[in-house]
Amino acid sequence: MDKIDFSDKYFMQQAYKEAREAFSKNEVPVGAIIVSQGQIIARAHNLTETLNDVTAHAEMLAITSAAVNLGGKYLNNCTLYITLEPCTMCAGALSWAQIKRIVIGASDQQRGFTRLQPSPLHPKTEITTGIMAEECSELVKEFFKNKR
Fold this sequence. Notes:
Elements: H1 8-24, E1 31-36, E2 39-45, H2 48-51, H3 58-70, E3 78-84, H4 88-96, E4 101-106, E5 126-129, H5 133-147
Parallel strand pairs: 3-4, 4-5
Antiparallel strand pairs: 1-2, 1-3
């Protein structure tokens, strides 16, 4: 039996599956998962169109799900895997949740939080970028190409 490699790439692949689900629902294809102690405790994808709610970003939905799962509002021992760089709203929520680590697929030059100084994230949050960046970016580009 093959051992599963629970690497950043493995977990980003899980987030990417969520992004594909959003794409199939005609939502901006962003997927998120939250991991605690090597276990996926939350899965989400954008649902802004479905719920008619501008705050229904994948990160926001994943934060809520993870907090319910853990029974507390702080995610300071958790990692968020997100296919597209979070916007400032989501970065603020991640800061309040005190997320330990964020792993980002594709960057978002227009709406991503990294363009802001100082960073809206909690000072102890670790950031890793570029995991499956090409695949994540291409999915978003394909979505918007189909919209035009």
